[in-house]
């Protein structure tokens, strides 16, 4: 079952590469739909009462170095795997006109990225995780470098180097972790690693290495400088995939490995991480306010929203963790929607400049549906109740407030600022009057609107029925939180003995 | 001494693969004399290929079928390690012939002598990896070197080829002289022993003379490995020499060098073990940094691959520098994969050069439109050299890094990881040229790219080589278990690597602490 999720896109990509152009489209749609169906089946089969890995698969591979093909899904990975399937399906079925040239290669690369992301999220062996994590690198590089804006070559190279460094850090972290015990064979199996109890200073060192690696990918604030360039220079479907799901590899790694494997060190560093997250939220929002380009604005909003997840992880209460996973899904959906709509606007209007756009909500000559959806997406992003963003953010804040009140308040201020820049965006884009000289925009066809409608439907549904957002990961988050909670006592004693004055709660 | 016991002492079954190569060589010479012109050009490569296949088959038989690996009164040792290295050399020669036919045809040079020289270089390399005695080492080293000089100057109408040959000859001869001087010191120090193991047992104290001998030996060996700072010939020779020859030099010759380095240093210098490992750490660091950083600035594909091969040698030497069983196994494993990755890259380069007549990286721009197969194969090989999963190179590097971490060589592994990011930059630059560029950015060479025909002389073998290396590079990583256990087995069952195992500083410690 899980293998099928990884191998179906890979084999599909190979077959599509060999098909002639005319049939490759159909082939890709069939493959993507099959993946989506598999995801739905997976959601049905998943037992939400279990915290452990389910549907595990284990095959010996390179046993000598401890690299085994072991997969498993739990509440942490399941929502993201499903999101991955959904976004890939939307992109492959509906995004042809944003790509225009060399669509076959695009589909092949997209399916490979999908396989890599799913593989990384499903692997329960750390070396296997690294393998899939690096696997995504080249298809993404190509997909950024071939399709996109004028500076795409520069942006792609920047992305490549940042991500390669991130991969190196993650690999170093895992190698070091694997060799820590004085075994003749190292341990790379996640469940076994979880049972180790490591000395605190070792935990902190490894945690910092892994945290750096994942922070580059997510990205969190000082390591984010690849993001604006890459997001802005990428084509719409690329950035939907990149921002929607690939960047989630960073936050997933954060939850799975940083919080999951080093609970003591995490409990010790959490206050600093929370402050870091709070500052990240504010930074993202402030910088977004000053942007003139709507894509860049949405890109910076993404930086802010990813920092909520860092905050959620820092607190590591069951509530905040579930909110964190909810925020990953919600951010994936909302970001995909926003980037899609921005892409439609850019394509029809021909500009992304806030000073040139105006009056798109005009029912006849403007782009009324797109504008309406953009308003809805902006509201979802800013955390308006009734939409999925609110649920996730509220869970995060409620979960973190008791532990880190000040960073939480920072983040709440950040939410307010999010509303500020989205209002600026909506005001300059949707409202106002059309310029009579330039307003002869092509019509947006029904098919072009479909992905946005599907995403909006999901955003509203999950906002009204949040059970469907959170029920998958309840048990898994409780398990992680218990680990950290149980260790907080330990580490408090430790910190008392270390007489560190900075740890207050 | 009667014939039977002499035969037992000589144990010529151990050099059956080399005997086959010699037979082929003679056959090629004879047929070249009898048949003339066109006909010989068509038939000779096939003979050579058949001979090398037979030789490899003999090596496969030797893996299990050989009872006594020691031959020629102890001067040749056909242990598992040498079998693997000899197989890599034979295969690299085999692929070199496959990719040469087209090149020779186009440059209008004689096929017969080329094959003979190539086969004798192969022979030298194969003997070198199994030689256990100093005279034997030197003879085979010179067989390899002299043939290499001849090969690099083979296209004598091209001034760059002449320059390359002269440079290679001068540097090579000087390094041989230094190596020979080091060996003469060893001979004197040991009181007149030539066998490597006898030298080790005779020299009981580590003194300055031994260190000097070691340094001189390393200087000679590093020239073959093109380890920095003994690398200066590499870029110029690679650029000037005929491309198929470069393919052989970067694989066959280098593997022979690694075989020699392992056997010589481990067997003859047990007392200076710490020192030579230290020297290798320095060489590794320098090679990785210089090879990879300078490769970024290259504009010619051949020069870039030259610096990349220096960098790659650095990665392999990491396996040697850490001095552990897993380190040696990872080194063997990487060399096997390197054979296919590098050969694939060279084969693609030869094909591109034969169609367009240039090897500038900028001329590859927009190639995906005209030749998807070449684009795919070259991209896969380069990305594999860069260590991208799920290609072969990723697993090779992973094993080296793993072994390095096991041996607690943290700094080396970190540096190697950073350098593999650097190497990704220049490998992806070529991929970017081929795949990313738009049709309007196509280079002049690609615009005039001739229609693809596989019927010309030498095209079929070239195609076969490309397709085979492509498939191998793509698959061998995922299905690397057999190769993996093969290289582990080779290290486990090789006597001289085991003899030193108790002295190994780090790895031997790990299992004992576990008990």
Walk me through this protein's architecture.
The complex is a heterodimer of chains A (505) and B (515). Chain A has 22 helices and two strands. Chain A is mainly alpha-helical and 505 residues long. Chain A has a domain at 262-505. In chain A, α1 runs antiparallel to α2 (21-45). Chain A starts with a helix and ends in a 7-residue tail after the last helix. Chain B is mainly α. In chain B, strands 1-2 form a two-stranded antiparallel ribbon. Chain B is globular, with a radius of gyration of 22 Å. The termini of chain B are far apart. The model of chain B is unreliable at 501-515 (pLDDT under 50). The A-B interface holds A 61-62, 64-65, 67, 127, 131-132, 134-135, 137-138, 141-142, 145-146, 153, 156-157, 160-161, 164-165, 168, 171-172, 175-176, 178-179, 182-184, 186 and B 383, 388-390, 394-395, 398-399, 401-402, 405-406, 410, 413-414, 417-418, 420-421, 424-425, 428, 431-432, 435-436, 480-481, 484-485, 488, 510-511, 513-514.
Keywords:
heterodimer, A: 505 residues, mainly alpha, two-stranded antiparallel sheet, disordered C terminus, B: 2 strands, 1% strand
Brief sketch in words of this structure:
Chain B: Its main location: membrane. Chain A is mostly helical and 505 residues long.
Would you tell me the structural class of the helices and strands of chain B?
Answer: mainly alpha
Largest sheet of chain A: 2 strands, antiparallel
Oligomer: heterodimer
So what's the overall shape of chain A?
globular
Order of strands, main sheet of chain B, comes to 1-2
* Broad structural category of chain A: mainly alpha
| Helix proportion of chain A | over 70%
Which pair of chains has the greatest number of interface residues, and how are they split between the two chains?
A: A-B, 34 and 35 residues
Rounded to an integer in angstroms, the radius of gyration calculated over CA atoms of chain B is 22 Å
Query: Which range does the strand content of chain A fall in?
Result: under 5%
The biggest beta sheet of chain B, please?
2 strands, antiparallel
What string gives the helices and strands of chain A in order? Answer: HHEEHHHHHHHHHHHHHHHHHHHH
Spatial extent as radius of gyration of chain A: 22 Å
Distance between the termini of chain A: 44 Å
Mean pLDDT of chain B comes to: 91
Strand order across the biggest sheet of chain A?
1-2
Q: Detail the poorly predicted runs of chain B.
A: 501-515
- Count all strands of chain A and give the number: 2
């Amino acid at each position: 079952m899980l293998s099928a999720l990884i191998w179906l896109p890979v084999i599909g990509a190979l077959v599509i590469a060999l098909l002639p152009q005319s049939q490759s489209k159909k082939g890709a749609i069939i493959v993507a739909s099959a993946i989506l169906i598999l995801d739905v089946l997976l959601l049905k089969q998943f037992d939400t009462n279990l915290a452990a890995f389910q549907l595990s698969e284990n095959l010996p591979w390179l046993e000598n170095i401890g690299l085994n093909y072991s997969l498993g899904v739990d509440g942490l990975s399941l929502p993201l795997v499903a999101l991955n399937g959904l976004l890939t399906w939307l992109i492959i079925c509906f995004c042809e006109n944003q790509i225009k040239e060399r669509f076959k290669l695009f589909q092949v690369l997209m399916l490979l990225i999908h396989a890599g992301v799913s593989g990384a999220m499903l692997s329960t062996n750390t070396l296997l995780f690294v393998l899939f994590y690096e696997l995504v690198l080249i298809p993404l590089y190509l997909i950024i470098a071939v399709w996109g804006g004028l500076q795409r070559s520069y942006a792609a190279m920047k992305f490549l180097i940042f991500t390669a460094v991130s991969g190196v850090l993650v690999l170093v972290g895992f190698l070091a972790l694997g060799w820590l015990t004085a075994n003749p064979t190292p341990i790379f199996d996640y469940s076994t690693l979880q049972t180790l109890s490591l000395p605190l200073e070792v935990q902190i060192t490894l945690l910092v290495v892994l945290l750096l690696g994942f922070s580059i990918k997510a990205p969190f604030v000082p390591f984010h400088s690849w993001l604006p360039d890459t997001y802005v220079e990428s084509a719409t479907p690329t950035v939907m995939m990149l921002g929607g799901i690939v960047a989630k590899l960073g936050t997933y790694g954060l939850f799975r490995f940083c919080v999951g494997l080093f609970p003591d060190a995490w409990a010790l560093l959490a206050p600093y991480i929370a402050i870091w997250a709070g500052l990240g939220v504010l930074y993202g929002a402030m910088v977004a306010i000053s942007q003139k380009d709507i894509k860049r604005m949405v890109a910076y909003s993404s930086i802010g929203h990813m920092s909520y997840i860092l905050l959620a992880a820092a607190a590591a209460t069951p509530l905040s963790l579930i909110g964190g996973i909810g925020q990953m899904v919600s951010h994936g959906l909302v970001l995909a929607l926003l980037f899609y709509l921005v892409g439609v606007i850019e394509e029809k209007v021909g500009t992304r400049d806030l000073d040139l756009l105006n009056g798109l909500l005009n029912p006849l000559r403007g782009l009324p549906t797109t504008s309406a959806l953009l308003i809805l997406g902006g509201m979802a992003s800013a955390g308006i109740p009734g939409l999925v963003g609110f649920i996730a953010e509220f869970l995060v804040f409620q979960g973190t407030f008791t532990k880190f009140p000040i960073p939480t308040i920072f983040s709440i201020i950040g939410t307010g600022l999010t509303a500020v820049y989205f209002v600026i965006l909506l005001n300059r884009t949707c409202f106002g009057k059309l310029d009579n000289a330039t307003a002869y925009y092509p019509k947006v066809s029904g098919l072009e609107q479909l992905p946005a409608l599907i995403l909006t439907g999901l955003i509203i549904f999950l906002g009204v029925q949040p059970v469907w957002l959170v029920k998958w990961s309840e048990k898994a988050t409780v398990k992680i939180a218990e680990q950290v909670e149980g260790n907080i006592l330990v580490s408090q004693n430790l910190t008392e003995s270390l007489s560190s004055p900075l740890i207050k709660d | 001494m009667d014939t039977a016991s002499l035969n037992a002492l000589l144990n010529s079954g151990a050099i059956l693969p080399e005997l086959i190569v010699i037979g082929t060589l003679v056959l090629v010479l004879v047929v070249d004399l009898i048949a003339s012109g066109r006909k010989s050009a068509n038939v000779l490569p096939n003979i050579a290929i058949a001979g090398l296949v037979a030789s490899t088959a003999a090596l496969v038989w030797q893996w299990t079928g050989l009872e006594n690996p020691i031959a020629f009164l102890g001067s040749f040792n056909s242990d598992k390690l040498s079998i693997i290295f000899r197989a890599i050399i034979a295969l690299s020669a085999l692929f070199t012939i496959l990719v040469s036919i087209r090149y020779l045809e186009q440059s209008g040079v004689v096929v017969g002598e080329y094959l003979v020289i190539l086969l004798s270089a192969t022979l030298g390399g194969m003997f070198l990896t199994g030689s256990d005695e100093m005279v034997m080492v030197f003879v085979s080293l010179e067989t390899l070197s002299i043939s290499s000089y001849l090969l690099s100057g083979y296209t004598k109408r091209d001034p760059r080829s002449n320059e390359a040959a002269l440079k290679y000859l001068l540097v090579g001869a000087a390094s041989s002289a230094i190596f020979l001087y080091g060996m003469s010191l060893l001979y004197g120090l040991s009181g007149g022993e030539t066998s490597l193991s006898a030298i080790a047992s005779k020299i009981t104290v580590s003194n300055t003379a031994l260190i000097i001998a070691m340094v001189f030996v390393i200087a000679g060996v590093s020239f073959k490995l093109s380890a920095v700072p003994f690398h200066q010939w590499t870029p110029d020779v690679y650029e000037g020499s005929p491309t198929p020859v470069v393919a052989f030099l970067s694989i066959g010759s280098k593997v022979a060098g690694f075989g020699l380095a392992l056997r010589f240093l481990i067997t003859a210098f047990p007392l200076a073990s710490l020192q030579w490992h230290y020297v290798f750490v320095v060489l590794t660091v320098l090679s990785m940094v210089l090879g990879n950083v300078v490769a970024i600035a290259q504009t010619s594909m051949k020069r870039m691959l030259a610096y990349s091969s220096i960098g790659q040698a650095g990665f392999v030497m990491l396996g040697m520098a850490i001095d552990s069983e897993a380190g040696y196994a990872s080194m063997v494993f990487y060399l096997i994969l390197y054979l296919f990755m590098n050969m694939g890259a060279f084969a693609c380069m030869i094909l591109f050069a034969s169609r367009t007549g240039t090897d500038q990286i900028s001329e590859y721009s927009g190639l995906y439109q005209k030749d998807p197969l070449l684009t795919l194969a070259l991209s896969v090989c380069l990305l594999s050299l860069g260590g991208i999963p799920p290609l072969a190179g990723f697993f090779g590097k992973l094993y080296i890094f793993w072994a390095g971490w096991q041996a607690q060589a943290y700094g080396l592994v970190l540096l190697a990881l950073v350098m593999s990011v650097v190497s990704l930059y220049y490998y992806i630059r070529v991929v970017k040229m081929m795949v990313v560029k738009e049709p309007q950015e196509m280079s002049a060479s690609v615009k005039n790219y001739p229609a693809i025909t596989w019927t010309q002389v030498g095209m079929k073998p070239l195609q076969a080589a490309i397709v085979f290396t492509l498939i191998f590079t793509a698959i061998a990583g995922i299905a690397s278990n057999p190769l993996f256990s093969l290289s582990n087995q080779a290290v486990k069952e090789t006597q001289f690597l085991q003899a030193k195992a108790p002295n190994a500083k780090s790895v031997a410690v790990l299992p004992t602490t576990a008990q």
